[in-house]
Amino acid sequence: MKSYVILNAAMTLDGKIATKTGNSEISGEKDLIRVHELRKEVDGIMVGINTVMVDNPKLTAHKVSNNIEDNPVRIIVDSNVRTPLNSNVLNDKAKTIIAISNNALSSGNNNEKIEKLKKHADVFSAGDYPVDLIKLLDYLYENGIKTLMLEGGSTLIWAMFKHHLIDEIRLCVAPLIVGGFDAKTLVDGEGFKTMAEGISLKLKNSYSLDNDLILEYDCLY
Ligand SMILES: NC(=O)C1=CN([C@@H]2O[C@H](COP(=O)(O)OP(=O)(O)OC[C@H]3O[C@@H](n4cnc5c(N)ncnc54)[C@H](O)[C@@H]3O)[C@@H](O)[C@H]2O)C=CC1
Ligand SMILES: Nc1nc(O)c(N)c(N[C@@H]2O[C@H](COP(=O)(O)O)[C@@H](O)[C@H]2O)n1
């Protein structure tokens, strides 16, 4: 069994989830409240290590609650043990799991960093390289994370789609165009070769929040 995964992200009308400089402040205040209500509902929230390095997010429900018990378990997918020790995700506001690769664990080069991380987080290793997402989701489910919010970024979202691990999408489309070859889109990675291989979606809800459009889809596999 694996966790039920909800991908939540904000993108510009031209499909970017950050500008070429990594600025990702896209959606309006009402959408951010929606995001934090969702964080409060789910058991876990997962991001890739680049998101931690670029945004230094807290990944708590801080806009809607000060109660630590409302915060989801934070999961960082970090094959090479790059999580900075002063990251907000290592604060005491919620439990954190750092998922690393078996290669990073067995090389011996990261022992000191892993010991330091273990003072603030659980460290779980799966897959030689990169992190085996299927094993990770099994582990999360077995450890009580039945619902998991995936917040990004583009590389991790691609890997999760490639393995058919995303069940639902909640997307905020903001009325903005930023362009840029180097600006991250909702899904990057190597991509599928044909439309036939693409993930089919079923639109199940759409509504406006001030100037933002919220789209909700089920993934059909
Ligand atoms: N607008 C929005 O809703 C959001 C925007 N962002 C933006 O996304 C950008 C970061 O996205 P990316 O650079 O694509 O990085 P990412 O956050 O997706 O992290 C990717 C990294 O995760 C690690 N990783 C470990 N195992 C992996 C696996 N099995 N598959 C894939 N990756 C694995 C790799 O080191 C990989 O480089 C930032 O600029 C951030 O601001 C991030 C979250 C939400
Ligand atoms: N849905 C959404 N809309 C935006 O406008 C955003 N900027 C994001 N970004 C995500 O939120 C993280 C910051 O979270 P904290 O408030 O620090 O907990 C950021 O890293 C993105 O994951 N999302």
From TrEMBL:
- NADP as a keyword? yes
For molecular function, the Gene Ontology terms on record are: 5-amino-6-(5-phosphoribosylamino)uracil reductase activity; NADP binding
Q: Which UniProt key words apply to this protein? A: NADP, Oxidoreductase, Riboflavin biosynthesis
EC number, as in UniProt: 1.1.1.302
> Signal sequence: where?
none
Kindly list the biological process annotations in GO that this record carries: riboflavin biosynthetic process
- UniProt cross-references to PANTHER family, sorted A to Z: 2,5-DIAMINO-6-RIBOSYLAMINO-4(3H)-PYRIMIDINONE 5'-PHOSPHATE REDUCTASE (PTHR38011:SF7), DIHYDROFOLATE REDUCTASE FAMILY PROTEIN (AFU_ORTHOLOGUE AFUA_8G06820) (PTHR38011)
**Homology family:** Belongs to the HTP reductase family.
Entry protein name? 2,5-diamino-6-(ribosylamino)-4(3H)-pyrimidinone 5'-phosphate reductase
